[in-house]
Amino acid sequence: MSIKSNALKQYLNIMIVIILSLLIGGILNGLHIMLPWMFGPIIASIICIKIFKLDLSKWPNWLSNLGLIILGLEIGTTFTKRVLKDIQNDLILIVLVSLLIILSVFIIAIGFKRIGKVNFETAILSVVPGGISQMLMMAEENKRADILVVGLTQTSRMLFVVVLVPLLSFFFKEPSGEASSQPDIKPLTEVINLPQLIIIGIGIAITYYIMKKIKFPTRYLLAPIVVMMVWNLITDINFTVDNWLMALAQIFYMVRIGKQISELLNQLHGRIAIAIAFQNITLILVSVVLVFIINIFSEHGINQLFLSAAPGGMTQIVIIAIATHADVAMISSYHIFRIFFILFIIAPLIHLFVKKE
């Protein structure tokens, strides 16, 4: 009876936070507030945990993963043949931006070390953007690294990303909007039939399985992106994900982010809190300075370059890109390359360094 009662309570808590997310998101949307379906679930989660004292610890992972898959589909639909050709022309810029961001990370780690009074192993594993699971695994393996500080710092970055990056992005947004995807593309529900949807679904499942076997990160997001890139290359059937599906996807995913932010608010205090604020704000400011310099030599707009260089999770950045009508495919390509760069080059180098130390 107790088990059934707890299950019912958890189910009610889930329904309450979803309904509240829809309500707050709808209000923010009606008031034309930026990113209503991103901020709505975050605010709803914090209200439910802090004010209503609801237990959201059992928020279903499958809902968040479903949200990621839908977001991945939307990102993947922007990778058309034309866009992929444009990305090839920008390959040098993509590599350059990634290298400069990673270089700045090592400099910022020195400041983090001094402010937080931590050793360099902890500082470098805390500051590197992206690859959170890899950084935590290396912190666990290295006896000198403080895994609690690394985990708190890496996780807290999303708090700064969801607050500062949207504000700066909307400030940089051009009045007419930057290069959006392709015009006049119909939504998924009007273009794709059931057999085609099943083929896409099978493709995502197979790609996810392969990525899981090789322990590739962010696979719920990247698997549908890869499948849609292949789909766009071999078919002429282009579509975009329906607005209502995108709103649901953001709610399913951002409730989890809101839950994590709520938990982080209780842990951020003292020198570590100051060090975390320093490294996150500095990383974002470095991205801004870098973008203004690169903009002199590039034809891309400030907002697109900023979102391409900004530290933070690819999912949050892409949601902001969609809202500001930036070039989602181009911005995604920068972050996907950074994931590969960190995973296959930076992470092994850091691992060798901290192991040697």
From TrEMBL:
Residue spans crossing the bilayer: 12-28, 34-52, 59-79, 91-112, 147-172, 192-211, 220-239, 272-293, 305-324, 336-354
InterPro entries with a match to the protein in the record: AbrB_dup (IPR017516), AbrB_fam (IPR007820)
Chain coiled-coil ranges: none
Domain of life: Bacteria
Gene Ontology CC terms: membrane
Keyword terms: Membrane, Transmembrane, Transmembrane helix
Gene Ontology biological process terms in this record: regulation of gene expression
Alphabetical list of Pfam families matching this protein: AbrB
NCBIfam families, alphabetized: Gneg_AbrB_dup
The name this protein goes by in its record: Ammonia monooxygenase
Organism in which the protein naturally occurs: Staphylococcus massiliensis S46
Lineage: Bacteria, Bacillati, Bacillota, Bacilli, Bacillales
